[in-house]
Amino acid sequence: MKLSHTLLSNLLALMKSITTGDVKDILAALQRIIDYQTEEILIYREMILSINHNVIPEPTDDQKRRLAMKAHMLSEDALQRFASWAPGLIISWYRGLVGAKYNGSGSRNKVGRPAITKEVVKWIVKIATDNPAWGYERIREEVNHLFSKKNISVAKVTVERVLNDHGIYPKNSERRNNSLEIFIAAHREIMAACDFCSYEVVNAGCLIRYMLLFFEDINTRQVWLGGIVHDPDGKYMAQVARNQVDCFDGRLNKFKYLIHDRDPLFRGKFTEILKSSGIETVLTTPRCPQQNGFVESFHKTIKTECLDNLVLTSEAQLRYVVHEYLEHYNHERPHSGLGGRIPDPWPEDPGGEIIMVSRLGGLLKSYRWGKLAA
Questions:
Q1: Are the beta carbons of 312 and 68 closer than 8 angstroms?
Q2: Is the full-model pTM beyond 0.70?
Q3: What is the pLDDT of residues 145-157, one digit of tens each?
Q4: Which of 60, 174, 298, 304 has the most CB atoms within 10 Å of its CB?
């Protein structure tokens, strides 16, 4: 009620300053109001600087949210000209708010296995080097026996990680015999991968987490969106599975295997629907995201090249940005994993001229041969 009264009062004040009522008069009146408010803000700024010895006070988290929500409606040029804070600083505030939302370090106990010492690492490497016929499990048993008096034990996956970091692969190791890497290499033309990543949308003064499900053809490196949702559940995942194996436009129909992690969302109906369409799910080892490295790499790429540089305030904006990035990623961006080739490039005209393609206000740029201008 108070807000409506304020808006009405502002409107009446504006109308009193208009003489003719035409568009130019209205715009001129608005510009005079903006000029006055800008000058008033500059005076307040000078007063604050004089009181705080030329230091601008740090805004509160709530003030940062309010400012970020207004800033997304301005162009970068407008922010550069009129904002008191640089556009990059506003983006950094957003990232800080996202980090603070999930920072539970001050209220949780330390979890996980303790880090292994340099001495343990040295002996893992030495034992593996001295005994090339031993596998990971045999090496683990020997190391645990040696350090049992110090109450130190290591897991098989720890031994594997240490040796892999040193470029050592025991003769009887899974990597040499039947590793997931070898399985992927042998079936890459009929294998896809999927996983979730998250993004925080600024809305109504708070951060709302959206989950983005991406699928990737690991042979061609083409990526497509499986869905964007705030709170995925079993019913939602079942519908995603139906969409992906739809008889008309299901993207997974040509694949035999789908790699994903052990997230409970991928169980139940999701797996059953895929299996009924002849698609087997391949689970990664617990706490080994590198086994689904294709999608994990894409998550890092879309965040560093796109999402981390934007402050979005709605699901609709997020969907638009992801769509634009996938067009760029699949049709315009060269990939090092493909030897510099583009997964599915747009048609080009070698006899034309080089043109630049810009998306998201210049955030994403690419170049290709196009037809000469008439």
A1: no
A2: no
A3: 888 888 888 888 8
A4: 298
